[in-house]
Design a protein that fits this description.
- By secondary structure, the protein is α+β, with helices and mostly antiparallel strands.
- Helix content is 12%, strand content 23%.
- The chain contains one helix and five strands.
- A five-stranded antiparallel β-sheet has the order 1-2-3-5-4, with helices on one face.
- It is globular, with a radius of gyration of 19 Å.
C-alpha cells in the first residue's frame, strides 16, 4: 500500500490533508480519516455521476478515483495551481498605490465555529422526479 503521508503536503484543512503525487506532479490526493468521511463519500459519488453522464471536467479538477486504506479514505484528483513567475510577489497582481488591509481578527468568543445550521444532504444534487 502507498504511504501518502510521505508525500509533500500542499494543503490542510479541518477535515482533509492534500498531498502532491511525487511521480505525477499534476495529481494530488485528498485524505480524510474514516471517522469524518461523509462529505468525501458524497463528493466521490457526485464525481462518479458526472463521469457516467459524460460531463466535461473543464470547470472542475479531473477526478481519477477513490482511494482507501486502513483508517482513511480519499480522492485522487488533478492538481490545479496558479503559476507565479519566479521572483514575483502578490504585489504584481494589485494596481500601484493599492493599500491592502488585512482581515480583522475573529473574536475569540465566537458563538459557533459553524454558524450554518446542520441539515441532512443525502442525494440533494439529484433532480427531483416530481
Amino acid at each position: 500500500m502507498i504511504d501518502y503521508t510521505t508525500w509533500r503536503v500542499i494543503g490542510q484543512g479541518t477535515e482533509r490533508t492534500c498531498y502532491q503525487n511525487p511521480e505525477k506532479p499534476a495529481r494530488c490526493v485528498k485524505i480524510i480519516r474514516k471517522s469524518r468521511f461523509k462529505q468525501t463519500l458524497r463528493e466521490i459519488s457526485y464525481f462518479g455521476y458526472l463521469k457516467r453522464k459524460g460531463v466535461p471536467f473543464d470547470h472542475l479538477p479531473r477526478f481519477y478515483g477513490k482511494i482507501e486504506g486502513e483508517g482513511f479514505i480519499g480522492i485522487e484528483q488533478e492538481l490545479i495551481r496558479d503559476t507565479v513567475p519566479s521572483g514575483k510577489s502578490a504585489d504584481m497582481f494589485t494596481p500601484p498605490g493599492t493599500i491592502c488591509k488585512p482581515y480583522p481578527a475573529r473574536p475569540s468568543t465566537s458563538i459557533s465555529r459553524n454558524p450554518v445550521p446542520p441539515r441532512k444532504y443525502g442525494n440533494s444534487w439529484k433532480r427531483s422526479t416530481n
